[in-house]
Amino acid sequence: MPDFLSLNQLGMAVVFAAAFLLTHRYRAQPRAAPLPKQAYCGAGIVFAGQVLCYAGVVPVAVYFTPIAWTGYLLWVDGAIYSLRGRSLLRNRPWEFAWLAGCSIPLWLLFEAYNLRLANWIYVGLPDNVWLRILGYGWAFATIWPGIFETAMLLRALGWNAPPPAAADRAAHPPPATIGWIVSAAGLAMLMVPLLVGKEVGRYLFGLVWLGFIFLLEPLNRRTGRPSLWADLSRGDSSRLRALLWAGMLCGLWWEFWNWFAAARWFYTVPILPEWKVFAMPLPGYLGFPAFAVECFVLFALLAPWLGWLSQKLGYRSRPQWELFEL
After folding, report:
1. pLDDT, tens digit (0-9, with 9 covering 90-100), for 195-208
2. For the chain, percent of residues with pLDDT exceeding 70
3. Are 163 and 153 in contact (CB under 8 A)?
4. How far apart are the C-alpha atoms of 10 and 14, rounded to whole Å?
5. Beta bridge partner(s), residue 116
6. CA distance 131 to 33
7. What is the Cα–Cα distance from 271 to 288, expressed in whole angstroms?
8. CA-to-CA dists, residue 101 to 42, 140, 207, 275, angstroms
């Protein structure tokens, strides 16, 4: 039996080491603009929220997860603006709003799977149903922005930069049969956990974290949507690597902040349940990079439809989708 306290200490050490490395890298980079006030405001929200949560101040302790992520998004977006001279929230707020709005129903796909597979539960939620819905919606709306903003930060910091000639290389599409086989494999990954018995299915949530990638990437590529597969065919893995690292970093922040919150999730994953860092069994951290790729693939599928809808709602032009520039 591992020492639970030592595992949490290890997790905290990794969280603080990651934050230190990001800060050190930022300080070493040339900047296009001063750090805007929104970044200081975001940092203040994170640190003040942490202190008030630790002190048990209500409602901060109950809503600490979405509060921390709201501060994080302001902070990171401000750092991106400082490095690039532009950022998603400051220059494309409409796109940021689309991303946050889509984050709620997209995450509910995974909540629907959890109803069957029962890998996590929520504890400490408000008794009032409307306050509970507020917390759900606020927290879920930060998921996709958190992944994309973190990936953009990593690219702005100079990590995972594309190779110089990648943009000039032609993407060579594979035979259509390959795409259909990959999509069929993805569909099987998504269906098998639901079709087997519940006790067996509880061990198979990993297939769900991969299934949408295999199912939808061939479609995104075939229809000209942003595609990681197309990137790889040009010899450019930089966007994929940025997403993978963003998923791991966001996974660390999610679990770290969730551990302090009064209203939080608790994992009932049956795989090595005694090896938990914060509330997550250690093998579960492998799912976060895959989830970040799924976030990209799912939103890439929706993007053209959202562009059409934005025009119907009176937006002046189709979104430029700055977020896909990662």
Report:
1. 998 889 889 999 99
2. 88
3. no
4. 6
5. none
6. 39
7. 16
8. 20, 9, 26, 35
> At a CB cut-off of 8 Å and minimum separation 6, what does 199 contact?
none
Contact 44, 316 (CB under 8 A): no
- Can you read off the two tokens belonging to residue 72? 């994080």
Strand partners, 280: 277
Asked whether the predicted pLDDT for residue 85 surpasses 90, the reply is yes
Q: What is the pLDDT of residue 83?
A: 95
**Residue 178 CA: distances (Å) to CA of 10, 146, 184, 186, 220:** 42, 32, 10, 12, 14
Residue with token string 């306050």: 131
| Residue 2 Cα distances to 53, 111, 170, 265, 277, angstroms | 28, 30, 51, 22, 11
Does residue 166 surpass a pLDDT of 60? no
SS3 annotation, the chain: CCCHHHHHHHHHHHHHHHHHHHHHHHHHCCCCCCCCHHHHHHHHHHHHHHHHHHCCCCCCCCCHHHHHHHHHHHHHHHHHHHHHCCCHHHHCHHHHHHHHHHHHHHHHHHHHHHHHHCCEEEECCCCCHHHHHHHHHHHHCCHHHHHHHHHHHHHHCCCCCCCCCHHHCCCCCCCHHHHHHHHHHHHHHHHHHHHCCHHHHHHHHHHHHHHHHHHHHHHHHHCCCCCHHHHHHCCCCHHHHHHHHHHHHHHHHHHHHHHHCCCEEEECCCCCCCCEECCEEHHHHHHHHHHHHHHHHHHHHHHHHHHHHHHHCCCCCCCCCHHHHC
Residue 227 CA to residue 317 CA, distance in Å, equals 23
Q: What is the pLDDT of residue 163?
A: 65
Mean of pLDDT over the chain: 89
Within 10 A of 121 (CB to CB), how many other CB atoms are there?
11
